[in-house]
Amino acid sequence: CTDSSMKSEKECRGLYIDYSRDKKEVKRREWRRHEFHYDNVCWALLTLFTVSTGEGWPQVLQHSTDVTEENMGPSRGNRMEMSVFYVVYFVVFPFFFVNIFVALIIITFQEQGDKMIQECSLEKNERACIDFAISAKPMTRYMPQNRQTFQYRLWHFVASPSFEYTVLVMIALNTVVLMMKYHSAPTAYDAVLKHLNTAFTVLFSMECILKIMAFSLVNYFRDTWNIFDFITVLGSITEIVVDLQSLNTINMSFLKLFRTARLIKLLRQGYTIRILLWTFVQSFKALPYVCLLIAMLFFIYAIIGMQVFGNIKLNDESHINQHNNFKTFFSALMLLFRSATGESWQEIMLSCLSGQECEPDPSISPLTISPDHEGGCGTDFAYCYFVSFIFFSSFLMLNLFVAVIMDNFEYLTRDSSILGPHHLDEFVRIWGEYDRLACGRIHYTAMYEMLTHMSPPLGLGKKCPAKIAYKRLVLMNMPVDEDMSVHFTSTLMSLIRTALDIKIARGGEDRIALDSELQKEISIIWPYLPQKNLDLLVPINKDTDLTVGKIYASMMIMDYFKQNKAKKLRQQLEAQKSNMIFKRLDASTLPEDILSNAQPLPMMAHSAGSALTRGGFVALSPISPQELFLQPISSDADGGQQQSLV
């Protein structure tokens, strides 16, 4: 009953005085249902759907616990056991089944992506790595060409790791200073913090000046991070100038954001942070398509809402008011965006039902209600309108964002030993250490050292034996140019192919046929890729072309030959030594000069001239028979004990 003093339907008759407003008002008593109830299946489903969205459920819970007998008014806390129903429902449906629904959306999204590449033998991870190789470019270090100038020495200073670490320490200290400020602090305390902030601004300004002098003005602004640093410093200087001038006419407090913006520079430091940042950026490539789909949904529902609910009279006591209505397209979009976030969407729906007052028609003079809406505005179509919109927007469309991000973060649940596109940024960074001019080429002899400086699964690591590294280089088999250099793109693609085993010729397989087949598949997936870039990705080497694989294979063959030869000679010398030990000789029959010049039999001498010595394999070089007998005798310092030649 609208009069809370009446407890039954029979008593709910006549008039009563409403004291709830500023002025007293006489109203007629009415027996009504609550907006959300369980009188039939349809209303029960609507009530449970509203509760599952997390909006208005405390009020529904209160109404359920206050329920009494039929045709009787509510009584506070009459059936508290009904609260158990809502607790169980929240655990089972919003916390469990809704998340299953989200998981199904993610799985369906991934399956649809896999269907697009069923005709291609390349897997999703392989395609992502190749896509990275297509778009990757050498990191430009902007190193001065003349190494005898002051600019080069300055560049070497600002590009050194110690300089970067110093800047990071200054950012950390600046953050601590920003954290030390509090309200109603003493004047002296604020003055100290102010001077410290000014000092940090001066230091960061010096950093920008040094980098501009080292890189030159044009090259400095080619780097996005440098532009960010410059804007941050410029904003901090502007804040100091405004503070010194005491310009109180304009609120310039937003300039303090530039000081905290320096923390963003920490994102580019650290291997794990760079991987997360790269994956987050990759997610934005697919988000525009999801945003376009959601924009179409909002556009359609906004147009429908303007046509159906645009003539409802604005009422400040209702949820259709001057800030929340369907009068214009922009206001309809704002209302739908609010509903998509779940903010009192059910109250907006109830304010759009039939029986609402209508706005006067401005085309009729004097202003009267249009004849088409004499029975009132609003419609029960609002139930279908808002329920369908909440389902499509909150439960379906917005979860596509989660699907896109989860798809890019798939590597978190994958074996870490499998190469992924998030690993390839390390190659670009380490390549820049050897190709500081960013010409896209390095000498082939630097390949071994570069592989050992890259961690698995991309590289081999510093503890990898040279034999394994040389075998990896033989499989990579990049073409070597006339100046004995290898190309950036070819090297990166060769690393990807060997790590993921993408059409690598093994045994008696036709290498040229596999390379041609891979070129064909890449051209199908990336149809607009120029042939020049395709030849760099998958070069088809002729038998007469010089490649890295041929160079390192010949080095391995030569080293194996030396080791085999040394092994055979060692066996011969060991056999000779054994014969001399077990053969009985009469010392009296030997010449006196032989007995006096006798010395231990040497075995082998170490040589560092092997091709694999650099990687840890020490080859043994034999000693000729002439060297065995012509080496002089050396006596021990203590008592003339003979020394071994080994």
From TrEMBL:
InterPro entries recorded: GPHH_dom, Ion_trans_dom, VDCC_a1su_IQ, VDCC_alpha-1_subunit, Volt_channel_dom_sf
Membrane topology field: Multi-pass membrane protein
Statement: the UniProt record of this protein carries the keyword Transmembrane: yes
PANTHER family cross-referenced by the UniProt entry: VOLTAGE-DEPENDENT CALCIUM CHANNEL TYPE A SUBUNIT ALPHA-1 (PTHR45628), VOLTAGE-DEPENDENT R-TYPE CALCIUM CHANNEL SUBUNIT ALPHA-1E (PTHR45628:SF5)
Catalyzed reaction equations: Ca(2+)(in) = Ca(2+)(out)
Subcellular location: Membrane
SMART domains tied to this protein: Ca_chan_IQ
Annotated keywords: Calcium, Calcium channel, Calcium transport, Ion channel, Ion transport, Membrane, Repeat, Transmembrane, Transmembrane helix, Transport, Voltage-gated channel
Domain Voltage-dependent calcium channel alpha-1 subunit IQ residues, every copy: 543-577
Full protein name: Calcium channel, voltage-dependent, R type, alpha 1E subunit
Swiss-Prot/TrEMBL GO biological process terms: calcium ion import across plasma membrane; chemical synaptic transmission
Ranges annotated as spanning the membrane: 84-109, 165-184, 196-218, 287-309, 383-406
Pfam families listed in its UniProt record: Ca_chan_IQ, GPHH, Ion_trans
Gene designation per UniProt: CACNA1E
GO cellular component, one term: voltage-gated calcium channel complex
A GO molecular function held by the record: high voltage-gated calcium channel activity
Keyword Coiled coil among UniProt keywords: no
Organism expressing this protein natively: Nothobranchius kuhntae (Beira killifish)
